Amino acid sequence: MTATRCVVASEKPVFPVEGIASERVLLRSADPSLTHEFRAYLIDNHAYLQPWEPLRDDAFFDPDVVSERLQSMAQKNANGDALLLLMFTRESNRLIGTCNFANIVRGAFQACHLGFSVAEDLQGRGLMAEGLRLALAYVFDQMGLHRVMANHRPENHRSARLLARLGFQREGEARSYLKINGVWADHVLTSLINPKEVDGGVQALPVCEQRPQEVVS
Ligand SMILES: CC(C)(COP(=O)(O)OP(=O)(O)OC[C@H]1O[C@@H](n2cnc3c(N)ncnc32)[C@H](O)[C@@H]1OP(=O)(O)O)[C@@H](O)C(=O)NCCC(=O)NCCS
């Protein structure tokens, strides 16, 4: 039996191999050993995710390509360039989502970009919010990041509601920001600041309430 413990923040903490868990979800670091589950998630949710992602060709779903992508993601995690996570249900150990903190920049910035998704059939249960609270506590407390930025298309109301619930604040709009589904799309820019580093640490945000539970391996 192993437990996830809070430690002093570091620029390259080793993400627990058994993952980190909340009541209903488990977050695991991207790894080629998860190729089968990840590929099934991408295929099952292709049509549903496509409006919010870059165009995917057939090669994107090739098992070898998925495995190489997971290898590259694992390497970025090991280098401290990203924290790219896969989300599972604790109940059935099914891969049900993604939670990606990319483009980590240290120095005076201490920031990254967040992307996420949950399986179509499991929307509307609070699972993504639960996973993100858990992950955000990790990137703030263990990795010591200061700012997490999350951007969404204006018409992505589910994403907007989720980010607002987590305490993300709207900072503006960017024209023609990302090429999504084959078209350059405007985006709403939002961010969440490490609650301990705002106004001397007095800002109370919902993300602080989520702390890892013990993971039984
Ligand atoms: C964006 C996305 C992650 C939102 O998923 P979601 O399931 O709506 O998000 P949450 O986990 O916050 O769930 C909240 C909903 O669950 C409901 N809910 C039900 N049971 C709940 C519980 N036990 N706890 C919390 N919320 C619960 C809430 O009322 C809320 O519903 P509402 O938004 O209709 O009010 C999902 O739609 C998705 O993956 N979309 C495709 C990819 C995408 O758009 N990614 C973001 C690109 S910017």
How does this structure look, described?
It holds the Pfam family Acetyltransf_3. Keywords: Acyltransferase, Transferase. InterPro entries: Acyl_CoA_acyltransferase, GNAT_dom, N-acetyltransferase. Belongs to the acetyltransferase family. RimJ subfamily. Helix 1 crosses helix 3 (63-79) and helix 4 crosses helix 5 (157-166). The chain has helices at residues 35-44, 46-49, 63-79, 127-141, 157-166, and strands spanning 20-21, 25-29, 83-89, 95-105, 111-118, 147-152, 169-180, 183-193. The radius of gyration is 17 Å and the shape is globular. The chain is 26% helix and 29% strand. The chain has a single domain (20-209), classed as Gcn5-related N-acetyltransferase (GNAT) (Aminopeptidase, 3-Layer(aba) Sandwich), CATH 3.40.630.30. Strands 1-2-3-4-5-6-8-7 form an 8-stranded mixed β-sheet, with helices on both faces. It has 5 helices and 8 strands, in the order E-E-H-H-H-E-E-E-H-E-H-E-E. The chain starts with 19 loop residues before the first strand and ends in a 24-residue tail after the last strand. With 217 residues, it is α+β, with helices and mostly antiparallel strands. Residues 49, 52, 116-118, 123-129, 152, 156, 158-159, 161-162, 165 line the site of coenzyme A (COA). Residues 49, 52, 116-118, 123-129, 152, 156, 158-159, 161-162, 165 line the site of coenzyme A.
